[in-house]
């Protein structure tokens, strides 16, 4: 590992110098250039194509390669007429004639015809379109990130999945990688190529890499009947489709000993299409710092991620596909040097003191998922897909056996795991020009395990009496089942109108058994070619997260230092809600689009979660009533090489009366919440994000920013933390280094203002410790494209 760090440090230093040299080199008098793009016959950019510039006498005047966007540049070209030749394995050679005038930039666009693989690509593209037709988005709101959007973020594809989603409207940041969409706690569903992934214990946003995504859609609002169970936000991911062999190797890192190498590779062999990516991350700030300083104490992490996808065309109308994802994470739990030990606990242990900086808590996380599917079309009117899904996740928290007793009166060794297996099917039938019928089902079975071996002090009449004892709380739960069916009709009664109406039935059986029939209705009205209105209503049914297992036997800890203040522990019930959504999208000019969306949600048995102990594991509970309301605005502007966006959301999330998991609360909080509407702990009034990028020749200048008015804190969430603001500028330069091919160099400054951004104060419902966002950091990288 030391060798990797030394090598990475040298490589990153080279990247920084190379970047600065490349940018400076490009700056003075960059005229007499040829810029262009290269695409295949389907209009998709070709990466890594070889381009040669020749004069009329056949003299080679320059060589370069195309980047991920198919873009290429020949610099410092003398005035005259030239031929640009393009070559790529599996494609026919292409030529464009270009005339360069003094002080100008000439442009060229080349299209290469495939020798053999294009037929396979066309068939696969047709199936991709058919799969998309299975997922209508009528009535709700959709925010899209494509490969270019991700590439223009300051960190590019090194951006964590959660940080990408934070650039969407109404997405608030929390500690431990959590996201809150439109005032909901978690309740996010992830889909890959239309396949629903079962929920896991680990933070799923952290378990994903952005590298395998071709498109990421965030769906919110009143969604059609096919979307259910987790409805605050549906993250719909489309995997990359690479039909020509190629890939990249990326070495990224910087401040706080960050090392992040990664690779991606894909290609086509006959009718087989494949893609794989992997990454490793090591740094000294794996979890948010509990103090506002730049460098936390005891906060190292190592994380391994991988993803592989393969599909095989059985015939022009059908294919089988499989995908596999893996994630392993190891974390040190950061220490708070200001913590004060309990003198009574010290006395019972026979020690005089304990330095909080020496605590040694750790957490291990595992995440595996696999999918095997079959997709086909029948004629021109019927599309369907059926998939088998399996997922295993686990979390293992190991305490400091002495330190946790000294500070908390309990040292818990906690292991939780979840194994889910499921089946999903979706189909669509184009009845006629006015009606498209869609229907489908999903079913899964989950087995969970919760092992909690705790060391505590015995108590008599509330007073510690004697040395520590061990309590075992083992809770296996098998046969947790979820089942859903839906049917819906996309009806186009008039040219400008689209109506989607349907029904969904959901059933669950775990610690409780429940079901619900849910109607859905969405309407889209294209008022003019530039103005689109949408409105929708959805009845939602959200089961409790069974893998976040409650400490069921509260009485085990009676008369100990871990005894609950309130012994009551009612079961967590499914959440039921009515959701209303209305919005408009207006294209002001061809380059400028604005949108506004309002939403209102009425909920019974509102599900929330909290960290009620030192382990970074969350426990769910219910509020009897909930109410969420808000407005989102978004602006997008793109012209030529300049692009900008901005989002602002105003949200209020209120709840009343705790009806389950009461043992996690004090009696005073329970009494107050029973008689007053309170803000949920994840409520944030104002949430904003924005970004600007400009491509000048082969150099990309970019900056993004996020703002939050502050999550809740204090008794019953009656207070809030200060606002947070993080601005991240970056620059990327592409160049060709000898015969090595195209290389991208990147420099990023995260939190350039070096603001102290407090995420959590250590107070509030389900908030165990304070957390602060990262301070200023300098990062860089080199990416080799082949």
Characterize this entry briefly.
The protein is mainly beta and about 775 residues long.
Report on the architecture of this protein:
With 786 residues, this protein is mainly β. It has 2 domains: 31-114, Carboxypeptidase-like, regulatory domain (Immunoglobulin-like, Sandwich); 127-785, Beta Barrel (Maltoporin, Chain A), CATH 2.40.170. The chain contains 8 helices and 43 strands. It has a 22-stranded antiparallel beta barrel. Strands 8-13-14-11-12 form a 5-stranded mixed β-sheet. A 4-stranded antiparallel β-sheet has the order 3-2-5-6, with no helix packed on it. It is globular. The model is unreliable at 6-11 and 13-30 (pLDDT under 50).
Please identify the top-level CATH class of the largest domain: Mainly Beta
Total number of distinct structural domains: 2
| Poorly predicted runs | 6-11, 13-30
Any idea what the radius of gyration is? 28 Å
Spell out the blueprint of helices and strands.
Layout: H1 2-26, E1 33-40, E2 50-54, E3 60-65, E4 71-74, E5 80-87, E6 94-100, E7 105-112, H2 118-132, E8 141-146, H3 147-151, H4 161-165, E9 171-173, E10 179-181, E11 188-192, E12 195-196, H5 204-207, E13 213-220, E14 233-239, E15 246-254, E16 258-269, E17 272-283, E18 301-315, E19 318-332, H6 343-349, E20 362-378, E21 382-398, H7 403-408, E22 410-430, E23 435-456, E24 459-460, E25 463-464, E26 469-491, E27 497-509, E28 513-528, E29 531-542, E30 575-587, E31 592-610, E32 619-639, E33 642-658, H8 667-675, E34 678-679, E35 686-696, E36 699-708, E37 712-713, E38 719-720, E39 724-736, E40 742-750, E41 758-761, E42 770-772, E43 777-785
Parallel strand pairs: 1-7, 11-14
Antiparallel strand pairs: 1-4, 2-3, 2-5, 5-6, 8-13, 9-10, 11-12, 13-14, 15-16, 15-43, 16-17, 17-18, 18-19, 19-20, 20-21, 21-22, 22-23, 23-26, 24-25, 26-27, 27-28, 28-29, 29-30, 30-31, 31-32, 32-33, 33-34, 33-35, 35-36, 36-39, 37-38, 39-40, 40-43, 41-42
């Amino acid at each position: 590992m030391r060798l990797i760090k030394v090598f990475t440090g040298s490589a990153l230093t080279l990247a920084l110098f190379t970047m600065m040299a490349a940018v400076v080199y490009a700056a003075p008098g960059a005229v007499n250039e040829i810029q262009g793009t290269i695409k295949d016959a389907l209009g998709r950019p070709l990466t890594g194509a070889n381009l040669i510039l020749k004069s009329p006498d056949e003299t080679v005047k320059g060589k370069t390669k195309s980047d991920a966007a198919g873009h290429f540049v020949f610099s410092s070209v003398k005035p005259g007429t030239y031929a640009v030749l393009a070559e790529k394995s599996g494609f026919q050679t292409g030529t464009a004639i270009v005339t360069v005038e003094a002080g100008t930039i000439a442009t060229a666009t080349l299209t290469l015809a495939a020798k053999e693989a294009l037929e396979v690509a066309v068939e696969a593209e047709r199936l991709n379109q058919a799969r998309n037709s299975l997922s209508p988005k009528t009535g709700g709101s959709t925010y899209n990130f494509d490969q270019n959007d991700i590439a223009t973020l300051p960190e590019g594809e090194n951006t964590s999945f959660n940080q990408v989603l934070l650039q969407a409207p109404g997405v608030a940041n929390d500690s431990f990688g959590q996201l809150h969409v439109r005032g909901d706690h978690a309740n996010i569903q992830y889909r890959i190529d239309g396949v629903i992934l079962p929920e896991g214990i680990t933070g799923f946003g952290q378990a994903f890499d952005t590298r395998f995504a071709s498109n990421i859609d965030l769906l919110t609002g009143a969604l059609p009947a096919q979307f259910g169970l987790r409805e605050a936000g549906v993250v719909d991911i489309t995997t990359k489709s690479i039909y020509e062999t190629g890939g990249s190797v990326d070495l990224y890192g910087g401040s706080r000993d960050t090392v992040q190498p990664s690779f991606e590779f894909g290609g086509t062999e006959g009718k087989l299409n494949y893609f794989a990516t992997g990454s490793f991350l090591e740094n000294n700030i794996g979890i948010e710092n509990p103090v506002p300083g730049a460098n936390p104490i005891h906060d190292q992490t190592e994380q391994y991620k991988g993803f592989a996808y393969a599909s095989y065309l059985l015939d022009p109308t059908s294919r089988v596909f499989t995908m596999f994802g893996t994630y392993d994470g190891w974390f040190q739990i950061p220490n708070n040097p200001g913590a004060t030990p309990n003198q009574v606990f010290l006395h019972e242990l026979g020690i005089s003191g304990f330095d909080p900086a020496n605590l040694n808590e750790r957490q291990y996380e595992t995440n595996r998922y696999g999918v095997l599917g079959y997709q086909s079309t029948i004629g021109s009117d019927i599309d369907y897909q059926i998939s088998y899904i399996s997922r295993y996740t686990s979390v293992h928290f190991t305490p400091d056996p002495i330190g946790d007793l000294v500070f908390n009166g309990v040292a818990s060794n906690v292991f939780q795991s979840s194994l889910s297996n499921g089946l999903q099917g979706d189909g669509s039938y184009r009845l006629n020009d006015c009606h498209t019928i869609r229907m489908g089902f999903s079913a899964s079975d989950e087995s969970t395990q919760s092992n909690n071996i705790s060391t505590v002090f015995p108590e008599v009449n509330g007073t510690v009496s004697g040395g520590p004892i061990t309590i075992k709380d083992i809770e296996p739960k098998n046969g947790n089942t979820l089942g859903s069916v839906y049917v819906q009709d996309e009806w186009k009664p008039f040219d400008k109108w689209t109506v989607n109406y349907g029904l969904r039935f959901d059933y669950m059986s775990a610690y409780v058994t429940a079901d619900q029939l849910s109607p859905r209705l969405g309407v889209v009205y294209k008022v003019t070619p530039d103005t689109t209105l949408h409105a929708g209503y959805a009845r939602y049914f959200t089961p409790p997260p069974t893998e976040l297992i409650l400490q069921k036997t509260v009485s085990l800890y009676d008369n100990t230092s871990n005894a609950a203040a309130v012994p009551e522990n009612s079961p967590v019930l499914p959440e039921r809600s009515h959701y209303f959504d209305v919005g408009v999208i207006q294209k002001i000019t061809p380059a400028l689009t604005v949108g506004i969306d309002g939403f209102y949600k009425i909920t019974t048995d509102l599900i929330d979660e909290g960290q009620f102990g030192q382990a970074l594991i969350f426990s769910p509970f219910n509020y009897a009533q909930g109410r969420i309301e808000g407005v989102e605005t978004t602006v997008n502007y793109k012209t030529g090489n300049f692009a900008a966006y901005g989002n602002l959301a105003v949200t209020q999330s209120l709840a009343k009366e705790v009806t389950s998991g009461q043992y996690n609360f004090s009696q005073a909080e329970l009494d107050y919440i029973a008689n007053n509407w309170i803000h949920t702990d994840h409520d944030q009034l104002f949430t904003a994000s924005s970004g600007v990028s400009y491509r000048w020749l082969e150099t990309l200048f970019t900056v993004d920013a996020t703002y939050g008015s502050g999550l809740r804190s204090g008794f019953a969430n009656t207070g809030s933390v200060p606002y947070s603001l993080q601005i991240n500028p970056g620059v990327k330069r592409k160049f060709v280094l000898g015969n090595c091919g195209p290389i991208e160099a990147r420099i990023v400054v995260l939190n350039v203002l070096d603001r102290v951004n407090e995420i959590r104060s250590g107070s509030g419902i389900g908030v165990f410790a304070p957390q602060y966002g990262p301070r200023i950091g300098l990062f860089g990288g080199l990416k080799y494209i082949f």
